[in-house]
Amino acid sequence: MAVYQIISLLSFLSSVLFLAFIQLTCKPFYTYRYIVVPKHYQIMRRLTLFYLVALISYNSIAQEIKVAPTTLITNVRLIDGTGTPSRNASVRISGNKILEVGDIKAINGEEIINGKGMVLAPGFIDSHSHIGGSLAKYPEALADLNQGVTTIVSGQDGYGSYVDSIKAGISRKPIAINIATYTGHTDLREKVLGSSQMNRPATENEIAAMQAILLSELKKGSLGLSTGLEYEGAYFSSRHEVLELAKTAASEKSRYISHIRSEDIALADALDEIINIGREAKLPVQISHIKLALKDDWGKSSQILAQLQTARLNGVDITADCYPYEFWHSTLRVLFPKTDYTNPVSAQYAVDHTFDPTQSILIRFAPNTIYAGKTISEIAAMRKEKPAQTLMGLIAEADAYEKAHPDANGVEAIVAKSMTDSDVINFLAWANTNICSDGSNGGHPRGYGSFTRVLGNYVRDKKIMRLESAIQKMTSLSAEHVGIKNRGVIAAGYYADLVLFNPTTIKDNATFKDSKALSDGIEKVWVNGICVYHDKKSTNKFPGTFIGR
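-> structure tokens emitted (549 positions)
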């Protein structure tokens, strides 16, 4: 029985009992030649009239509830996001919320969707996304919807828009997905220090100024502080600077997420830094896109996880997110651990230890577009140079291009091999890792295929974990790690972000040659109760919203 039916029945029974009580206890009595009307009878009569008016009004509201449009999704294998075993159940949606879950009978007038035995799961939450910058141009967000993602978390690696800017953007151009954000440390540094002063630590006064901006953003709904400590804009920041900002985040009971200071030669020190931040600032900390970028460390993922687990046992709430690829996507400069881009020794060290030039592809290079799509080794052969020399040359040419074109964005980008598949599997399987993409609208296939790749390649084919566990890592665990409430679980009262998919056919199709190829197996996607994706197409509905902390 539906909720409104139960309420209406109870209201009807209560009215009958109430009126019967009046008739039995409050009747007037008759004397010879006139009627005596007790005073309490007059009072009860007025109360009865008031009650009847209220009851009529209430039943009118109940009728409105009854005829409000609802959608019933039936005949599905429900995986609710909690990690518990799948079950057969139906889900009723009313407005932007889930109304009921279970063995539900259809009611007159509601839309009924037959799930045909497929899996219905909460919409996936991408805890580390760079799609936000493309939503103004591509509000249908096919990069996310084609892989079942309904909510993205932006402001990553120390960069990102401010809360008011994101809200204004959605107001101008509605979007198909939800978006939340962190506040970027590098953005704060640029705002306070200025772009020409980023190559030094901040002073105490500058730290205080950054704290004030951060606090304002947190009060507006930012999830917390994000850093990209390996990148130039934040590389020269001190541990003290980052820790003080993290303490500000902690004061608002928010979170810290970090592209740590090194993923290669100084990995041990970088891990020590983020663990110390969690311990000293007393807030949850998350490692962005956990990886082993130094070839010498390949195969050591179990040791890293043991270190993180020890920190957790010692009271530090440290977690990680991970994308399911052996290749990362960034700039040529990150290949130099010491940021000495003109040092031939460092360039040769990069070739020997931090990336494989034969498997690393330059996917974008504005100074000479013919290099795009070629490996560093192939470009070196074209230039008749050693890979190390080519690496230095490409960085110098990109730097000159940026100076000549100050408004240019994304002058160069490289996709480089960073891990072995066995390390990827270990990181994905850790109980405290949630799934992310670290993706943008093209370039690296992770932007269009991370979540479907996990479900197809790693869960169905390689069987590294249960399907229910994988879904949890994409939904409720992601929500928990970033501090999003009322999403990531299929239960009454939660927002109706849902994905219907076929577990036997789900598959990522995006590649380095075709990074925007849509995935197979995603049947339908709902955002806030509205179907936004069906049959590999946008429905041209834009119900996405900003999600504040």
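Confidence is low (pLDDT under 50) at residues 27-37, 62-66.
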